[in-house]
Write a structure and sequence with these properties.
Shape: flat
Strand content: 25-35%
Structural class: mainly beta
Number of helices: 4
Strand order of the largest sheet: 4-3-6-12-9-10
Amino acid sequence: MSLNKTVAICHKPNNHGLCGLLIGCWQVPGTNLASGKGSAINLPSRFDLHALNWRLAGFTPNFWLAVLSEPWLTDSYIAEVASIPARVPGSVQQALLAAGRISDWNKGLAALDCEWVEHRHWVYEAELPAEWLAAGRQVKLTCLGLDYSGWLYVDATLIGEFRGGHAPCVFDLTTHLKPGSKLRLIFAMPPQWLGYTGFTSRFTDWKARFSYSWDWMVRLVTVGIWDEVLLEISEGSGLGSLNCDASVELAGTGALCLTGQLAAAEGATVTVTLSGEAGQVRSETLSADQFATSGLDWPGLEVELWWPNGQGKQPLYTVEVVLRDAAGREQDRLSHPVGFRNFDWASCEGAPEGATDWLCVVNGRPVFLQGINWTPIRPNFHDLTEGDYRRILTLYRDMGVNCLRVWGGGILEKTVFYDLCDELGL
């Protein structure tokens, strides 16, 4: 899909539509997200930090604390592994493999020789471009996937701590940045055992368990950044999280319920537009206060229904939300694809009273579910690209699959996974 999105969407499919919870779905037409160049109306500038020159270094646990004042922590003389290139998102293991510091864990027993990696502290470090840091503006850093725990520093200043491999983290950097500031994501040692044998009820660490070895997997306890790192610089006004529920009514028409959070001055307005390949379906402008208080409900939408693979087409629409101030000047803009379908369960023919409903019904039509158990494509899931996901998901689509079960021992998966499933009828 040709959608300019730079932040993950937390999909929570319901029984009605494809759309779930939108967490800062950012799309700013006319703005280059790599450079931040856009119009002169002071829209929020949003940057995907994968474009920065990231460096990686490994330390004996806590040794980095002694050299925090150094200009480049990753160049420190006490680092065991110093200043190797790193990708973001990306794993420590992949960076070490690319630098020739460890062997390929997929070959023979080489995974055993990689286990030392999990017993170090690892520092990702990059310098923020001075031209991004306009004075007097708010700066927010959003990390969508950090594996697993550690600290965020700007230069030698501790900004905050993080813990949990599946939850996004947001940090306020407003008062901490200056030209030449270094962003430092420092990872502690991960939990030592979360494998599938023994004492599952005692595990309280929210990290992908398959990394600790499984019946199909070597032990490769990954460390690093597995999803996007994003920087937002604004003057305070803007759109926050949006909750969008797209459903299908009994008459076969679509319905859209949209609520959200925002920060705006008195007199601001919100314009919501739904459009598809054939053009605009509906648009409405309401006050920012009204939108924040009660949201928006649109019944009776003339839309095409989304169908599972093999049952029909997968038309997707775009919901666009624009915030303007009292003078009509645009303050922020978000957009997200949605699909309209109804999903329900029904009793099988001849089932006794009170039996569990096992028959899947989509848009009023019984559909036989034929699917697979989806596990992470690679041990180092941090390093997967959209191409990796598209190749495997297209293969399943071509096999006739229409249903995927995201396995609980892996990860909640990235936005691109769910977007491709929407596109492919999965």
